[in-house]
Write a structure and sequence with these properties.
The protein is an alpha/beta fold and 294 residues long. Helix content is 34%, strand content 23%. The longest helix has 13 residues, at 275-287. The termini are far apart.
Length: 294
């Protein structure tokens, strides 16, 4: 079986939930503590064994590409100033993986965005990372899915349980648990954002996938669905019938960084790793009891 070496990050969206902040800044560049959120995604990809990341961009997204490029002038300034620790942080993004880009000229859905990477992915399996979904896990979420793909030979989607009242906000999957690994679900039903009463389960598909390249042929045959967009879920549902599909109840904590509340919670989560910052947060909260009620 071919090794999963490539990943696609669809990053062409306009980030309307963060306006006006995203009027001139790509939402993927909003910081989680001191790193753009998309850097956390690429770090997960690199830690999962990914060698090349294909970023699907749109108008006004050039700063994403710039972030993962070398900056000789800045690097030399930091080197001369003896700021070696900061220099390493600045150099890291340009050294983690190879970055390629493809342009999505019109917002025609997630499935269409992935199709834009077809010529760069080629005929090999690949991972998909949705940049709104940040996962904090001891073992990278994508690596967990890659291991399932390699053991089953089937495409894999990341799953998590959500409250039933939230099922209408997700693609929902249902299936049977694997006899040997209860985290693996052999999917037999997929529905994109169903009404709560019609949801076949509470297993939500979140933003990590490992896909066989045959998904491209299914995407080319997928008609526009919900929102008049080409939905990845619809293509996966067709592929599921003919080739099978696994879901994996991943280990880790997922944050929706595409939502203001989720974004703030992600910042708090990663801030806990910086003692100086976390101490300041705890001090502020202790000094302002009940302030959230005002």
């Amino acid at each position: 079986m071919a090794k999963v070496r490539k990943a696609v990050i669809p990053a062409a969206g306009m980030g309307t939930r963060f306006l006006p902040a995203t009027k001139a800044i790509a939402k993927e560049m909003l910081p989680i503590v001191n790193k753009p959120s998309i850097q956390l995604i690429v770090e997960e990809a690199a830690a999962s064994g990914i060698e090349e990341v294909i970023v699907i961009t749109g108008r006004g997204k050039t700063e994403i590409v710039d972030h993962f490029d070398a900056h000789p002038q800045l690097e030399e300034t930091l080197r001369r100033a003896g700021k070696e620790a900061l220099l390493r942080e600045v150099i890291l993004p340009s050294q983690m993986v190879k970055i390629a880009t493809a342009r999505q000229q019109r917002p025609l859905g997630l499935g269409h965005a992935i199709l834009c990477a077809r010529h760069l992915v080629g005929d090999e399996p690949f991972a998909v990372f949705l940049p709104d979904d940040l996962v904090d896990a001891v073992r990278p979420c994508a690596r967990q899915l890659i291991d399932v793909f390699e053991s089953t030979g089937k495409s894999v989607v990341a799953l998590m349980n959500v409250p039933r009242e939230e099922t209408s906000a997700y693609g929902i999957a249902a299936g049977t648990l694997d006899a040997k690994d209860p985290r693996i679900v052999h999917v037999h039903t997929m529905v994109e954002k169903p009404p709560v009463d019609d949801a076949p389960s509470t297993l939500a598909i979140v933003g990590r996938y490992v896909l066989d390249p045959s998904v491209f042929s299914y995407l080319t045959r997928t008609n526009p669905g919900r929102g008049d967009e080409i939905q990845l879920t619809d293509a996966l549902a067709a592929m599921m019938v003919e080739r099978g599909l696994c879901g994996y109840l991943f280990e880790g904590n997922r944050f929706d960084a595409g939502d203001v509340t989720g974004y703030l919670l992600a910042n708090l989560n990663w801030a806990r790793r910086v003692p100086r910052i976390w101490a300041a947060i705890e001090q502020y909260v202790a000094a302002h009891p009940g302030s959230s009620r005002r």
